[in-house]
Amino acid sequence: MDLKTASSLHRLRLVSAPEAVSFLLLLVCSVLKRTTDFNAVPVMGAVHGLLFVLYVLFWLDAWNRTKWSFGTAAVYFLLSVVPFGGFFADRRLKREAEAAVIASRARAEAAEGKVNA
Fold first, then answer.
1. 32-39 long-range CB contacts below 8 Å, 24 or more apart?
2. What are the pLDDT digits (tens) for 67-103?
3. Is pLDDT above 70 for 116?
4. How far apart are CA 9 and CA 58, in angstroms?
5. Which of 11, 29, 86, 107 is positioned for an S-S bond with 40, CB 3.0–4.6 A?
6. Tell me, what DSSP letter sits at residue 39?
7. Are 29 and 48 in contact, with CB atoms under 8 Å apart?
8. Which residue has the higher pLDDT, 102 or 61?
9. What angle do CA 3, 57, 87 make, to 5 degrees?
10. How far apart are CA 40 and CA 6, in angstroms?
11. CA-CA distance, 105 to 111, in Å (whole number)?
């Protein structure tokens, strides 16, 4: 995995958890708006909207760089619209990045073995 691909996955991971938290807070604010006089929906809606747009932009970049299949890309997108989904996306992206680092190191060691042999 090259550096640009790794950084695109890292950016997606960085925004996935805050996007999930903002979605949950927006749901709570919506309930509070209907049950009390507290109305933070306009503020939380704007925050969540910004984070969701960032998630989609970073998702598109990661999809382009990693060459995910349509199914994998669809799963990561669906995780952005499901409550708590961003936390699952973060965990899956972390595992994927760790596996890519291990594979990259194995390729580098194999290439060194061929050069040194």
1. none
2. 999 999 999 999 999 989 999 999 999 988 888 778 8
3. no
4. 8
5. 29
6. -
7. no
8. 61
9. 85
10. 36
11. 10
Give residue for tokens 């749901």.
27
DSSP labels, 52-99:
HHHHHHHHHHHHHHHT--HHHHHHHHHHHHSTTHHHHHHHHHHHHHHH
Residues 10-40: tens digit of each pLDDT: 899 999 999 999 999 999 999 999 999 999 9
Residues 11 and 61: their CA atoms lie apart, in Å, by 10
Q: Burial, 106: exposed, middle or buried (Cβ in 10 Å; 0-12, 13-18, 19+)?
A: exposed
User: In degrees to the nearest 10, what's the CA dihedral of 104, 108, 114, 117?
Assistant: -140
pLDDT at 117 over 60: no
Spatial separation of the C-alpha atoms in residues 78 and 85, rounded to whole Å: 8
C-alpha separations of 35 from 27, 42, 45 in Å: 13, 16, 18
18-22, 47-51, 67-71, 112-116: which range is least confident on average?
Answer: 112-116
